[in-house]
Amino acid sequence: MADILEFRKPSLNDKNKGKTLCRHGHHKWVVDKEKQFDVKQGKLVTIYRCTRCDKQRVRAH
Ligand SMILES: [Zn+2]
After folding, report:
1. What is the residue range of 39's domain?
2. Structural domains counted in the chain
3. At residue 20, does pLDDT exceed 60?
4. 20 Cα–ligand 1 center, Å
């Protein structure tokens, strides 16, 4: 049991590190879909996605 916990620790720490940055508003935004037409807003939007936590952000043009 202890061995399994030791083995899993590093990856969990890496994940938490990234999410801590995200929680403080330091998301790693990349363009997911550029200039998509948003029917709801009736205009072009660019969708950004955080590579760490997969949160999405929409920017209207
Ligand atoms: Zn994030």
Report:
1. 2-60
2. 1
3. yes
4. 9
